[in-house]
C-alpha cells in the first residue's frame, strides 16, 4: 500500500467530509471553515490541485455528496446552519443563477452555482446523500431533529424546484416486529424528550427505563448523555434496485439503525432494526444499572453494493469504538409477487446477523465506507488510523491492514499490513 497523494493544509479548519465523484478523479471536501473545495487528480503524478473553492454556508459544513454523472456535475452540501444546498458546475459564461467564488483556485474556467436551498430541517443537518441514479434525481437528508427527509427534483433541467417527497420521524417510526429480533421502544434524544410506548411489552419498557436511568446518573461523555454532541445522525441508501427505495438511518443516542422502506403508494415502514446493544434477552421487571451497558450513538452507516449477492452487507461505526458488519437477508420472493414483478418487502420478513465486530480503533469511529464491489471495508477512527477489513476464503472477516494519518518525518504514512491470508 503506497501513498499516492498528499493534500497539505486543505482547509483553514477541521475537514469534516471528503467525497469522490463517480470516476474517482475529483474530490469534494468541506470544513468547519464553511467552504467547499473541489480537487482534480493529476493522473500523471498522482497530485491533487484545487479546481474550485467557495464559501458555501453560514456555518460549519457537515457533509457533501455527488450526484450521478448522468445528471451533470452536481453536489449537495449539508450544514449546521440547518440548510441543504444543491450546487451545479457551469461554464464561466453561464449567468443563470447567483455566481459563487469558483475562481479562488488555479482554475477559473468553471463556477459552482447555487441552484436550490432546502430549509425544512429544524436542527443541524448532519448527513446528505443522493439516491442511486435509477430512482431519479433524489437526495436524502437527516438532521438532529431526528427527521429523515427525501427530496425529489421536479425539473432536472433547471435544478431549482425540489419537492419534499417524504418527511419521517425516524425514532417515532414503529420498529419491525419483535419476531424479527427488533426492539420496539424508541428512546428520548437531545431534541425529543419523550417517545411513544404504545403496544410494547413490560420487558421492553423496563429496558428503555434502564437505559434512561443509566444516562441520567452517569456524566455525559462521548457516546452517552443527552447533548447533541453525543448523538449520531447518519444515512445510507440501498444500492440494489430490485427492492425499491430503502434507506438505513441512525438517529440520536439509541445505538440502533432502522432499515426504512419508502413505497411509492404507501406510508414508509421499518423493514428491520439493527440493534447492537448488548442484551441477555431475558425480561427484566425491575431496571438495574448493572446489567446492560448504555447504548452508544451510531456515527456512520454504509450500505455495500450488492454485486450479485443474495444478501446485503451493511457496516456501522459508533462512539463505542466498534466497527460492525451486518449480513442482512431479504425474504425469499413469493411466487405470487414474482409473477407480479414486485419484491416482497412486507414488514418482519427481513433478518440480520453480525458477521464482523471489531474494536481495534479503541475510540469513536467517524466513518465507514465500502469499495466499489463491497468486498473491502475501510473505517476511520479517533485513533488517527484508517483500518481495512476484508473477508477471507472461509467467509470470515479479518483485519487487512491500517494506515496511520500521522505523517512521519519523510512525509510517508505508517503503513502496516496484516499477515492474514486474504481471499482474492
TrEMBL record:
Annotated localization: Nucleus, Nuclear pore complex
Gene Ontology CC terms, in alphabetical order: nuclear pore outer ring; Seh1-associated complex
WD repeat positions: 8-42, 54-88, 298-329, 358-399
Entry keyword set: mRNA transport, Nuclear pore complex, Nucleus, Protein transport, Repeat, Translocation, Transport, WD repeat
Xref: PROSITE patterns: WD_REPEATS_2, WD_REPEATS_REGION
Region (Disordered): 328-350, 402-424
Biological process per Gene Ontology, one example term: mRNA transport
One Pfam family per UniProt: WD40
SMART domains noted in UniProt: WD40
MF-aspect GO terms: structural molecule activity
Domain of life: Eukaryota
PANTHER family assigned: NUCLEAR PORE COMPLEX PROTEIN SEC13 / SEH1 FAMILY MEMBER, NUCLEOPORIN SEH1
Protein name per Swiss-Prot or TrEMBL: Nucleoporin seh1
Species, as recorded: Sparassis crispa
